[in-house]
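Report of the visiting student (M.T.), summer placement. My assignment was to run the structure pipeline on a short list of targets and document each run. The first record concerns Solute carrier family 13 member 3.
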Amino acid sequence: MKPQPGWPSSSCPSPSFSPHRVDVCVVEMRLSVAARKLWCIRKQLIVLLVPLLFLPLLFTLPEKEGKCLYVVLLMAIFWCTEALPLAVTAMLPVCLFPTLGILPSKKVCIQYFLETNFLFLSGLLMASSIEEWGLHRRIALKVLSIVGLQPAKLILGMMMTSSFLSMWLSNTATTAMMLPIANAILESLFGDLETLKEKCKRDGLWENFPIWPLFLLDRKQKCPKEIQSEAQYQMKVWKGFLICIPYAASIGGTATLTGTAPNLILIGQLKTYFPNCELINFGSWFAFAFPLMLIFLLVGWLWIAFLYGGLSPRLCFRKNERAEAEAKAKAVIVEEYRKLGRINFAEGAISFFFILFAILLFTRDPKFFTGWSVLFKKGYVSDAVTGVIISSILFFFPSQKPSLSWWFDSRASNAPYVPLLSWKKAQESVPWNIILLLGGGFAMAKACEESGLAAWIGGHLQPLAEVPPAAAVMLITGFVACFTEFASNTATIIIFLPVIAELAIRVSVNPLYFMIPATIGCSYAFMLPVSTPPNSIAFASGHLMVKDMVKTGAVMNVLGILCVSLAINTWGVAMFNLTDNPDWAQTNKTTQVL
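After the run finished, the structure tokens were exported:
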């Protein structure tokens, strides 16, 4: 019997006709079409159905706590699924908290531009001016020219540069800038990538790497197997270069308060929950997180270099045979740096303000020595004030060296001078959606506190008091690091930080002992391409596979958890006096009870 039009022949491999099989095939086809249709409108379905799904919370829990939990879960689902844009979800408290009687609008709206947002904005403006005049590229090329051209050293140089830039620029901008530089160096060392892949595929898949590969030997004296072995090793090193950059950018962002949004959310939520806590500022955070960044960067480099061949013992031999390729790579770096020309007045000015910005933030009130803030009324000058002062100067300071002769030269150009940063450039480069996201997080934290939801959740976490605090730190950090693999790190810390703060109060532990590791841990998303924008950029190059990131990132997550636990239990305890349950935490607990 001839198949009727519309019958899916691919689903029915048997040539024999069976009415039952045809019916099954038709049903399967219709289900497949329906599934595809549902997938196309999945975001709309989530927006419509999730509010209905959580409606019972409004009637089964205490009134205010139930309403607040309803909004928190709604926002958490929308953030995790991105059913609405992240910034749009962040604005939901403005309409939901007042209409549900949780918070008046004047208390909600003010959360969207706290002083923490101004500190974040000033850091972004400084980063915009650095990018505008190419100072970040000059720094990157200079570091790479110093570290040397052996694969292990180059991977270290890439990671050092990426992490340093990410302390001040966004992780995404750092990764986007460093990847083209890495590719140019690798092409000078190993040649064209597509040719390299073809050599890897001669006798097998290029992903399967030998244990003892050769490195840059004389190709004229090699058999095909040796050529393939060498190409596989070079491809392996190439992957190591690509994967180390987004990882280092994520690690570097944790070293400064302005390096990544979760750090600022910690500050904002501390001011909401514990207004008398003044231990965390730019200087004290840097003193704690920068050594942690260095340690994690070192162990991460050892792991990546080991996994991708950078520490191969064969690199100690045949130096003469590698000289030609290394000379080409060196020439690429030198040529790219030469194209930048001599450092101009704008770059020098940006360098000066950048250093001044860092020094003033670090020395305002570092806690371990008297800062310059004592020159003003206590509590009046914050990190936000410092940041806005420096960033404001960028909008009028000239990008060209002023000259007195210009006033007396009638032939000189009368065009308006160009400042170091224009407002148009600031509008284009500042991620305003992240500022809204910060505000949404602060509004959520305020509602959780005033509605009593945080205390209600904390009461149900009392059994966790039996877990030793050191073990709890590792569990919290590990859980947050795993959760942020699938959700935005900003959304993750917004959701969990109030719960973690209340847990610390309930088990009579210094809240910073749990909150700091959780904040840092949510930046340790290494396993999936979708975990962070830097991971996505590296994966989009087309040279990495998901299994490469999972294999490398799983161990990186474990190393990160161990490093955070080491830091918080050693110099963290000493810096923030974490062995005591402080008065500012007890005051908050008493207030909530009353």
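The radius of gyration is 28 Å. The chain has a mean pLDDT of 80. I thank the supervising group for their guidance throughout the placement.
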